[in-house]
């Protein structure tokens, strides 16, 4: 079943993640010519021991992913995941290279790794700063993998999935920010939110 948190905690998480993606959008817009709008309209939290509870829309088969581990007061792994077509559309929008161009494939990994690095750093940095926790991150890693495969190889107790919507040159591109919290880390996240709500 889905992990239970209060509506107030869920709203706080959504707000913190949106603050993070807002910072990420500002950074991306300062680096490229295209105007990028980013938002996270909804989040889902599930028990990692029950991956069958994943909505059908997230069982997308192989996806394009950029992953970064994090550790400190919270420990786990983060990923920015796109269906392959959305990944290609985003790379084309950012580089100007058509999906069937040889340069598109050469630029794909580097472009998406940079977007993932900025976005995941924004989200994790927002959680860390606002909840007064300390986090360190690894370098981003690009790969093609399904969400099911990622879940199997994690030692996670909770999975937070935030739908990320990219609006680039009027193209709506959707991906998912996925945070895998290792044992006790999700409880630490909830406790940090409670301290902030009680302050």
Short description:
The chain has 199 residues and is α+β, with helices and mostly antiparallel strands.
Describe this structure in words.
Helix 1 (7-31) crosses helix 3 and helix 2 crosses helix 3. The protein is 43% helix and 31% strand. Strands 1, 2, 3, 4, 5, 6, 7 and 8 form an 8-stranded antiparallel β-sheet that branches. The chain starts with 6 loop residues before the first helix and ends with a helix. The model has no long low-confidence stretch (mean pLDDT 89). The protein is globular, with a radius of gyration of 16 Å. The protein has one domain (7-86, 114-198): Chemotaxis protein chec, CATH 3.40.1550.10. The protein is α+β, with helices and mostly antiparallel strands and 199 residues long. A hairpin with a 2-residue loop joins strand 7 (156-168) and strand 8. The protein is built from 5 helices and 8 strands; from the N terminus they run αββββααββαββα.
List its salient traits:
199 residues; alpha+beta; Chemotaxis protein chec; 8-stranded antiparallel beta sheet; 8 strands; globular
Describe the secondary-structure layout.
Blueprint: H1 7-31, E1 36-39, E2 43-47, E3 62-72, E4 76-82, H2 84-95, H3 102-130, E5 135-137, E6 141-146, H4 147-152, E7 156-168, E8 171-182, H5 185-198
In total, the number of strands is: 8
Largest sheet: 8 strands, antiparallel
**What share of the residues lie within helices?**
40-55%
Q: Roughly how many Å is the radius of gyration?
A: 16 Å
**What top-tier CATH class fits best?**
Alpha Beta
**Helices and strands: which structural class?**
alpha+beta
Low-confidence stretches: none
β content, as a range? 25-35%
């Amino acid at each position: 079943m889905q992990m239970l948190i209060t509506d107030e905690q869920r709203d706080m998480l959504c707000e913190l993640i949106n603050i993070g993606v807002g910072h990420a959008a500002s950074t991306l817009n300062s680096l490229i010519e295209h105007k990028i709008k980013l938002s996270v309209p909804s989040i889902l939290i599930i028990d990692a021991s029950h991956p069958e509870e994943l909505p059908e829309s997230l069982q997308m088969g192989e996806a394009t992913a950029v992953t970064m581990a994090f550790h400190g007061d919270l420990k786990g792994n983060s990923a920015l995941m796109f269906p392959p077509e959305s990944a290609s559309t985003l790379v084309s929008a950012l580089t100007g290279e058509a999906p069937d161009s040889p340069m598109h494939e050469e630029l794909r990994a580097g472009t998406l790794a940079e977007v993932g690095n900025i976005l995941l750093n924004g989200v994790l940095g927002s959680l860390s700063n606002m909840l007064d926790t300390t986090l360190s991150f690894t370098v981003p890693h690009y790969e093609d993998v399904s969400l099911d495969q990622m879940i199997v190889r994690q030692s996670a107790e909770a999975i937070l999935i935030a739908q990320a919507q990219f609006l680039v040159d009027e193209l709506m591109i959707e991906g998912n920010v996925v945070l895998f919290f290792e044992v006790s880390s999700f409880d630490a996240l909830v406790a940090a939110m409670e301290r902030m709500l009680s302050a």
